[in-house]
Amino acid sequence: MPDFLLLALLAGIAVALVAGPLGAFAVWRRMAYFGDTLAHSALLGVTFGLLLDINLNLAIALGCLLLALILVALQNNRFLATDTLLGILSHSTLALGLVCVSIFSESRIDLLAYLFGDILSVSQGDVISIWVISLAVLGALIWLWRPLLAITVHEELAQVEGVPVVRVRTALMLLMALVIAIAMKVVGVLLITALLIIPAAASRRLSRTPEQMAVIASLLGMVAVLAGLGASYWWDSPAGPAIVLSATAMFSLTLLKKQQS
């Protein structure tokens, strides 16, 4: 196996490992639009990194975390319907990011790499940072698992039982922002949410408990990464979209299995 392909596989597995349980909560809480909004804001992080001359990966992570906090604050105020607010922020941040990035065209920025991912170009340093963040997020999810399940089932009841609902919900948004920041390198801004949602949606039909759904979603995500990279290598296709299509194919198979049973 070529070195670049091995590094890409390691990076993709790290993202899939944590995207499984996080995607499960995104499916349960219907947070796909939240993921889209956070993902689209990642291009603004690229702009900040260029303006401030700092590491782009760090700038993307900080930008996603900042927007996650803004989303939580705006959602708590409820001066607009949540879907309307997310629609405005999602498309405006994407448009602003595209415009700002185009201004720095002299820096030879590969815009398609940010939009659709560039997993085949990950370095050893990228792989290490992705694994560190993935394991940290996974550890936080394990620690917050019961409170997250409680607010997912019934927020008011969880609050009565003493669960700090606002803090737990904010933590979930911040964890999602971190995963989106590292997944940007794998599948790009436009396809990040698909990597979160599709394996989780497929695992929902194959599991009976929340824990089973989270584990199966991670496994399906890893298989999608492996199949997508294989398709990209053999047929010279874009790796990020190939990974998403592999996940979609597995979801389609779960639909057939459901119909047969």
Task: Please render the helix and strand layout as text.
Layout: H1 3-28, H2 32-40, H3 42-52, H4 56-77, H5 82-103, H6 111-116, H7 124-143, H8 145-153, H9 155-160, H10 165-187, H11 192-204, H12 210-235, H13 239-260
Pfam families: ABC-3
InterPro entries: ABC_BtuC-like, ABC_TroCD
Function: Involved in the high-affinity zinc uptake transport system.
Return the CATH class.
Mainly Alpha
Name the helix and strand elements from N-terminus to C-terminus, one letter apiece: HHHHHHHHHHHHH
- Number of separate helices: 13
Q: Assign the structural class, choosing from mainly alpha, mainly beta, alpha/beta, alpha+beta, or little secondary structure.
A: mainly alpha
Q: Write down the overall geometry.
A: globular
Number of domains: 1
Q: Terminal Cα separation, in Å?
A: 39 Å
Gyration radius, rounded:
18 Å
CATH topology: ABC transporter involved in vitamin B12 uptake, BtuC
Chain-averaged pLDDT? 85
Strand content: under 5%
CATH superfamily: ABC transporter involved in vitamin B12 uptake, BtuC
Q: State the low-pLDDT regions, or none.
A: none
Subcellular location: Cell inner membrane; Cell membrane
Family: Belongs to the ABC-3 integral membrane protein family.
Membrane topology: Multi-pass membrane protein
Transmembrane segments: 6-28, 40-73, 85-104, 125-145, 171-201, 213-233, 239-256
